[in-house]
Amino acid sequence: MGSHVVWTVLKKELMDLFRDRKAWMGTLLVPLLVIPFVFFLLGTSYSNVEKEAREYIPLAVQGSSSLITSLQKNPAVQILEPANPEQALQAGHLRAILTIPAGFDEEIAAGKTAKLSVAYDSTNQKSVYARTLIEQTVEAYSKDVVAKRLNQAGLSEQTIQPIVSTFQNAASEERKSGGMLAGIIPLMLVVSLASAGMAAANDLVAGEKERGTLESLLTAPIAAQHILTAKLLAVMTMSSMGAVASLISVTLAMRLGPMGTEGDHFTLAFFSPVTLLVLIVTILLLAALFAGLELVLSTVAKSFKEGQTYMSAVLFLAMVPSYMLMPVSPVDIPTHYYVMPVFNGVALSKEVFYGKVDPMHALLGIGSLLIYVVFTIFLASRIFRREGAGLKH
Amino acid sequence: MIEVKDVSKRFKEIAAVQHVSFRVEAGEVYGLLGENGAGKTTTMRMMATVLTPTEGDIEISGFSVRQQPLEVRRRIGILFGGDVGLYSRLTARENIAYFGRLYGLEQARLEERIHSLSRMLEMDDFIDRRVGAFSRGMKQKVAIARTLVHDPDVILLDEPTTGLDVTAATIFRRMVRKLQEEGKTILFSSHNMGEINKLCKRVALMHKGKLRFAGGLDTLREQFGTEDLDDIFMAVVEGSEG
């Protein structure tokens, strides 16, 4: 009888939610359309800036040196002579100003250190790119000068370069792809899990209370915990759908969009049966945790509007751990984060996208998440079954 | 049958209902009368087991609201006025069927009940349309059908005609009489003496959480020497305060 009631209420809740345009638009359309659109927009904007920075590099030179000839070997470099170079740099018409003191080449020829001054604008990405180009050119030019000096002194280059290092990236293609995703996806995943269920949770208790439907439901010969179980499952469904939609859209945006992995081969091979299982369990437990919390707040709220205000607390709870762990590599996450609420879910999903889940971390993370879920559902059940909790006034 | 036995309900410092007792016989339409805030809805909510009495008990068809709340719920149908408590994104049929399933009705029986209620309440034209766009009267019909879907013995009507126009209220009263003919026990709460007069022979009159009178309307008329029920109501209220 209990499972029949849960199924009846759940079916009705899902039908009701899917007929609510706002609910499914928030849950599915926003992640599926808005996220790729934002990625595309950001990517296009970044790649345009980079392209323009590479294709046209206007510089001003005060003084002269053969170094400038080396710079001009790059066809994008244009030497301009504006009336007021400083003003032109501020206005973005120039990317950098090179000031070469008198006797610059002579100083170098005499075996001394010549001083070159470069003015650039650190707030302008194109100017920063010009500075990098100048640095690389000066380094290459200096290397030539050093080689000539050593040659004159009868020494080889090896004299000043006793060690030559070669670096090989030990990260597999899978890990490189996953490493990129481990930065952004846990953030998107956890925030989606928290946000996608909010409208549903608020509607299913605070909204029903306001419309008087919950009171009618509570007069039916069914146990309150069965109603709550169905509502919890409905909110979890919406949360999980939102999270999966986010996962799909971010993965596609990374793979196909302009911010995608140019040159690198993007692959989802970092998913193994074990990591996939850990990810699914983590998503379900986080969905249950957020759904439980959202139902607690929705039950406590006296109106739908009040419920909306309370829901922002859940979003805050999801965002803080996600942003805190975003720049941290999965191998550097301290063990105690695997037992802290929400942090554990973020940390575990980072490991999944990194392609290697530590069994101890999985045990700690999933075990502690389970305890938080049980506690939250127990709390939700207590509050929901409290006398008068389902009444409007 | 409904038996309210010395029932009180407190919400922290507020005594919403104080030592109220009355009895509604099987097959009777009984009026629960009082102005807004008199304690009628709280009393109804205790009967529906949504609230638990602080003191006393209520028996519905022999079952205690304290001891056997699920048995009580199986035997009652409650209809609230104002917000009729329907799911606006579901059709009328889906609303009624949802509650029917929660009351454990088998599919065939459920379909039969929906069909007969739809005919009785003249809902055939709109039963498969979503409730959100319905008029107040149409919504009230759906809410009545939802209340009656499991064929309850006892029907609690809490200010059921609130917001209804004259025609809809008249149709509603006809339906109450029809239910009485079928042998249903009906408790009808209202703040409108005239409405109670049209349906009930006996009433309980509440004021500020206390029962001021329980008995026949004829007794009240004789006692106060007038046919005007509004005057009688005021006299009872003022007498209890004086």
Automatic annotation (TrEMBL), chain A:
Compartment(s) of residence: Membrane
Transmembrane segments: 23-42, 232-254, 274-297, 309-326, 362-384
Superkingdom to which the source organism belongs: Bacteria
Pfam name, any one: ABC2_membrane_3
Membrane topology: Multi-pass membrane protein
ABC-2 type transporter transmembrane domain sequence ranges: 24-381
Keywords: Membrane, Transmembrane, Transmembrane helix
Signal peptide: none
PANTHER family the UniProt entry points to: ABC TRANSPORTER PERMEASE, ABC TRANSPORTER PERMEASE PROTEIN NATB
Protein name: ABC transporter permease
Biological classification of the source: Bacteria, Bacillati, Bacillota, Bacilli, Bacillales
UniProtKB/TrEMBL annotation, chain B:
Keywords: ATP-binding, Nucleotide-binding, Transport
Single annotated GO MF: ATP binding
InterPro entries in UniProt: AAA+_ATPase (IPR003593), ABC_transporter-like_ATP-bd (IPR003439), ABC_transporter_ATP-binding (IPR050763), P-loop_NTPase (IPR027417)
Transmembrane segments: none
A Pfam family per the record: ABC_tran
Domain ABC transporter intervals: 2-233
Family label: Belongs to the ABC transporter superfamily.
Record's protein name: ABC transporter ATP-binding protein
